[in-house]
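Can't paste images in this forum, so I'm doing it all in text. The chain is below; anyone willing to post the predicted structure tokens underneath?
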Amino acid sequence: MEKGLSRNIFEWLVIFLGFSLILLGLGQHFGWLEKKETKISLIRAEDKEEENQGPIFIDISGAVVKPGFYQLDYNSRLNDLLLVCGGLSSWANQSFIQKELNRARFLHDGEKIYIPYFSENRSEDKETIIANSKENGGVAIVNINRANEDELILLPGIGSTYARRIVAYREENGLFSSIEEIKNVAGIGDKTFSAIEKYLVIEQ
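Text version of the structure:
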């Protein structure tokens, strides 16, 4: 009886293995055992650029008419920003504008742009400033919020001592809010102010 039982088990094993091989063959044939491919979504560079075509935000300061924080369209150029902020101030550094300012370049979100004043040009010396002042009858129009000592000295009645005091006052108290405020500088009274008033301007 034991022999019969062993024989039956052996026969069942053979049948099971044979059936398994048949299923394996069918699985390979019909691709049942193959892993399903993971779907990968590819994003073209062009599509990604289109997704990022939102507004950009730029901070511009210095010698422009209306410095500040501006929102522009994607792919805006520097010239677009200059138009929005009212253009360059008459105090802008012309050497910088001609040699380094590329109005055609594209802007990038989060940029900070600074347009230097002509007094910030390290290559300009006092003689150059004096030459520029001849256009105004020999006396320069001075922005007292940006002028350095060499420019302030050009004002009638303002020597090196008063020029230093004006710069020191500005550094201690911040920018002048009006040209009349210059009378708060020690030594500059009504008489001195009346002599220089027409040559003073305020630009932040």
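Residues 122-136 have pLDDT under 50 and may be disordered. The helical segments are 2-30, 45-51, 78-84, 94-99, 126-133, 149-152, 160-173, 190-196.
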